[in-house]
Amino acid sequence: MAAAAAAARAVSAGHGLRGVQRALPLVVILGATGTGKSTLALQLGQRLGGEIVSADSMQVYEGLDIITNKVSTQEQRLCQHHMISFVDPLVTNYTVTDFRNKATAIEDIFARHKIPIVVGGTNYYIESLLWKVLISAKEFASV
User: Fold this and answer.
1) Domain 44-52+59-134, what architecture?
2) Which residue, 19, 56, 77, 115, could crosslink 50 as a Cys pair with Cβ 3.0–4.6 Å?
């Protein structure tokens, strides 16, 4: 809950990724499975003209649509989605660092003057986007 409160303060203060000042807010929807996060994100995306960035550790995998409750292709057409279905499910070493490094879509969305809406239930994925909480193996070796 403390992380969610901090994220809410950062968004309301107009800060984007890792505290960088932004003209547009970064919206974050974090919650448990089955609480309506995707529906809310779609509604906000349509109303605000934003784009959705999935922060779900299982929705990154291709072909696991039903078991991960991915939004349908039709719903994805209603509002642009990012970070969904791009990892081969046979890859066993996909990490939160890989996710964070690939999530450049957020900066691209800001560059197009649109609002990114990060939605998911994988707290560590969301934290990796909001705060510099991860240490790379190279940084760890030098400590």
Assistant:
1) 3-Layer(aba) Sandwich (3.40)
2) 115
Domain ranges of the chain: 44-52+59-134
> CA–CA separation, 111 vs 96, rounded Å?
24
Cβ atoms of 134 and 97 closer than 8 Å:
yes
pTM to 2 decimal places: 0.75
The answer for residues whose C-beta is within 8 angstroms of residue 71's C-beta and 6 or more apart is: 38, 42, 81, 84
Assign 3-class secondary structure to 6-39. Answer: HHHHHHHCCECHHHCECCCCCEEEECCCCCCHHH
Contact 78, 98 (CB under 8 A): no
Residuewise pLDDT in 10s, the chain (143 residues): 344 434 444 444 444 454 555 578 999 999 988 889 999 999 999 999 999 999 988 888 877 766 667 777 888 888 999 998 888 888 778 888 899 998 888 999 999 999 999 999 888 899 988 887 665 555 544 44
